[in-house]
Write a structure and sequence with these properties.
Distance between the termini: 41 Å
Structural class: mainly alpha
CATH topology of one domain: Cytochrome Bc1 Complex, Chain D, domain 2
Shape: globular
Order of helices and strands: HHHHHH
Largest sheet: none
Protein backbone atom coordinates (compact mmCIF):
# COMPACT_ATOMS: atom_id res chain seq x y z
CA UNK A 1 0.00 0.00 0.00
CA UNK A 2 1.50 3.33 -0.89
CA UNK A 3 2.28 5.83 1.85
CA UNK A 4 -0.38 8.44 0.93
CA UNK A 5 -3.18 5.85 0.91
CA UNK A 6 -2.00 4.51 4.25
CA UNK A 7 -1.94 8.03 5.70
CA UNK A 8 -5.46 8.67 4.39
CA UNK A 9 -6.75 5.44 5.95
CA UNK A 10 -5.17 6.28 9.32
CA UNK A 11 -6.64 9.79 9.30
CA UNK A 12 -10.05 8.37 8.44
CA UNK A 13 -9.88 5.84 11.28
CA UNK A 14 -8.72 8.45 13.80
CA UNK A 15 -11.41 10.83 12.58
CA UNK A 16 -14.12 8.26 13.30
CA UNK A 17 -12.60 7.52 16.71
CA UNK A 18 -12.50 11.23 17.58
CA UNK A 19 -16.13 11.66 16.49
CA UNK A 20 -17.19 8.67 18.60
CA UNK A 21 -15.31 10.06 21.62
CA UNK A 22 -16.94 13.46 21.17
CA UNK A 23 -20.35 11.76 21.09
CA UNK A 24 -19.52 9.85 24.30
CA UNK A 25 -18.45 13.05 26.06
CA UNK A 26 -21.57 14.86 24.91
CA UNK A 27 -23.81 11.98 26.00
CA UNK A 28 -21.94 11.75 29.30
CA UNK A 29 -22.44 15.44 30.02
CA UNK A 30 -26.16 15.12 29.28
CA UNK A 31 -26.42 12.10 31.61
CA UNK A 32 -24.38 13.81 34.35
CA UNK A 33 -26.48 16.98 34.21
CA UNK A 34 -29.77 15.22 33.49
CA UNK A 35 -32.60 13.98 35.64
CA UNK A 36 -32.06 10.25 35.08
CA UNK A 37 -29.17 9.90 37.57
CA UNK A 38 -29.02 13.47 38.96
CA UNK A 39 -25.23 13.34 39.41
CA UNK A 40 -25.16 17.13 39.65
CA UNK A 41 -27.16 17.13 42.90
CA UNK A 42 -24.15 15.78 44.80
CA UNK A 43 -21.20 16.65 42.54
CA UNK A 44 -22.33 20.12 41.41
CA UNK A 45 -23.73 21.14 38.03
CA UNK A 46 -20.25 21.55 36.53
CA UNK A 47 -18.72 18.57 38.36
CA UNK A 48 -16.56 20.81 40.56
CA UNK A 49 -17.93 19.27 43.74
CA UNK A 50 -20.97 19.66 45.88
CA UNK A 51 -21.97 19.57 49.50
CA UNK A 52 -21.95 15.79 49.74
CA UNK A 53 -19.59 14.55 47.02
CA UNK A 54 -16.18 15.40 45.54
CA UNK A 55 -15.46 17.24 42.32
CA UNK A 56 -13.68 15.82 39.31
CA UNK A 57 -11.33 18.62 38.32
CA UNK A 58 -7.95 17.00 37.61
CA UNK A 59 -9.23 13.45 38.25
CA UNK A 60 -8.13 12.35 34.78
CA UNK A 61 -4.53 13.06 35.80
CA UNK A 62 -4.85 10.79 38.83
CA UNK A 63 -7.01 7.97 37.48
CA UNK A 64 -7.37 6.06 34.22
CA UNK A 65 -10.74 5.68 32.51
CA UNK A 66 -11.17 2.17 33.94
CA UNK A 67 -10.18 3.26 37.47
CA UNK A 68 -12.71 6.09 37.38
CA UNK A 69 -15.38 3.70 36.10
CA UNK A 70 -14.69 1.25 38.95
CA UNK A 71 -14.79 4.04 41.54
CA UNK A 72 -18.04 5.43 40.14
CA UNK A 73 -19.69 2.01 39.93
CA UNK A 74 -18.73 1.10 43.50
CA UNK A 75 -18.90 4.42 45.34
CA UNK A 76 -21.79 6.25 43.73
CA UNK A 77 -25.22 4.64 44.13
CA UNK A 78 -26.92 6.12 41.04
CA UNK A 79 -24.07 5.20 38.67
CA UNK A 80 -24.17 1.65 39.99
CA UNK A 81 -27.49 1.46 38.16
CA UNK A 82 -25.99 2.70 34.86
CA UNK A 83 -25.48 0.36 32.01
CA UNK A 84 -21.78 0.11 31.05
CA UNK A 85 -22.18 2.35 27.97
CA UNK A 86 -23.79 5.14 30.02
CA UNK A 87 -21.17 4.85 32.76
CA UNK A 88 -18.38 5.01 30.18
CA UNK A 89 -19.95 8.13 28.65
CA UNK A 90 -20.30 9.83 32.06
CA UNK A 91 -16.68 9.05 32.95
CA UNK A 92 -15.51 10.24 29.52
CA UNK A 93 -17.21 13.56 30.25
CA UNK A 94 -15.76 13.75 33.78
CA UNK A 95 -12.27 13.28 32.35
CA UNK A 96 -12.72 16.53 30.41
CA UNK A 97 -13.33 18.58 33.56
Amino acid sequence: MNRSIMTFVLLLVFGFAAAAYAADVSEGKALFQGEKYKCYTCHGKDGAGGTSAPGFKGASKKYSQSEMMKRAAHNCPPTGACNPKELEAIVSYLRTI
